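Structure first, sequence second, as always.
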């Protein structure tokens, strides 16, 4: 069905097409059985104190305001991450702000954390009980006077309803956000968040989402701070605001974060580097150009325990997750592996 609808959807502005997808997902009556695969149990992963039926998750950015996460879980995702959620509702940057680079299998976005804000999203999640593993990605408002405090508000409001919380310091579309990659600034932020955890006697996993544009000598610094400050997982990576030289589409010069196929090797290389630095102390969630079982397996053998995708869903439709799972199972069997966890870091 998606192959029939795709020409129509791609004739629309990308944001209009996305809004239409969200609206249609609110009435998703497709049976979840349609997205099941045989022998999926070998993809089962225990991580972050949770059971993931498979390692393929949906990245933050698709369901920004937590409107359709249960419908998305029915597509066969092992988990869904919503957000980025900011304390106050915000519109984001001016339109147009999403661009399809079809020849490159990529998107460029400069959305700027458009979302309904903590209060509305918190009520929404409480009223619609999650039917799977749900992560909440948090960040600061554009005009906030205190970005660190905005992160603290996110944790305070969501620690009792999320399965994990992602600290998004990596979007290229919010001014000053990537400054948190600085060792001292990151340490200060994580100390504040852990103080909230200790005061509330909570043990929710905190994940850290990293930019692909950091220089290599920052990797060991970030890994060290993460290990010493009880980070439960590192998401590699967010979108890149560089790496445009080899792109073909005319939109390549648009400002914003580039995602999809051009990010595939960049993020996989970063996974390898972090995997060596982390030395098994913190698991990695691999993101960037996951659009097939092969690309998924490459990230797993590079050191990722879980995966996330977004742009691949835009180009290949809802059956993508099922196809990735089928391909992963075939690869594992051909390699003589009994579970997906046995492949983590195998390529190093």
């Amino acid at each position: 069905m998606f192959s029939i609808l795709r020409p129509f959807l791609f004739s629309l502005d990308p944001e209009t097409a996305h809004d239409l997808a969200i609206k249609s997902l609110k009435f998703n009556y497709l049976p979840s059985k349609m997205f099941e695969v045989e022998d999926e149990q070998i993809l089962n992963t225990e991580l972050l104190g949770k059971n993931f039926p498979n390692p393929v998750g949906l990245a933050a950015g698709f369901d920004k305001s937590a409107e359709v996460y249960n419908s998305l879980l029915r597509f066969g995702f092992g988990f869904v991450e919503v957000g980025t959620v900011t304390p106050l509702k915000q519109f984001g940057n001016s339109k147009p702000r999403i661009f399809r680079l079809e020849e490159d299998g990529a998107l460029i976005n400069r959305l700027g954390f458009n979302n309904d804000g903590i209060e509305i999203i918190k009520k929404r999640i409480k009223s619609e009980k999650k039917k799977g593993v749900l992560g909440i990605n948090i960040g600061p408002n554009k005009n906030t006077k205190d970005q660190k405090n905005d992160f603290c508000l996110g944790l305070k409001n969501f620690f009792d309803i999320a399965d994990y919380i992602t600290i998004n310091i990596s979007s290229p579309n919010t001014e000053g956000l990537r400054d948190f990659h600085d060792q001292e600034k990151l340490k200060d932020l994580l100390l504040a968040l852990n103080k909230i955890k200790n005061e509330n006697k909570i043990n929710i996993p905190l994940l850290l989402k990293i930019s692909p544009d950091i220089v290599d000598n920052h990797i060991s610094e970030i890994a060290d701070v993460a290990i010493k400050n009880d980070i439960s997982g590192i998401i590699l990576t967010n979108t890149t605001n560089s790496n445009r030289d080899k792109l073909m589409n005319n939109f390549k010069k648009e400002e914003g974060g580039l995602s999809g196929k051009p990010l595939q090797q960049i993020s996989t290389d970063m996974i390898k580097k972090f995997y060596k630095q982390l030395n098994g102390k913190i698991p990695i969630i691999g993101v960037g150009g996951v659009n097939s079982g092969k690309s998924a397996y490459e990230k797993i053998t590079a050191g990722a325990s879980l995966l996330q995708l977004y742009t691949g869903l835009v180009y290949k439709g809802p059956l993508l997750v099922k196809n990735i799972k089928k391909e992963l199972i075939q690869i594992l069997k051909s390699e003589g592996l009994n579970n997906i966890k046995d492949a983590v870091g195998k390529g190093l």
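Margin note: The two ends are 40 Å apart (CA to CA).
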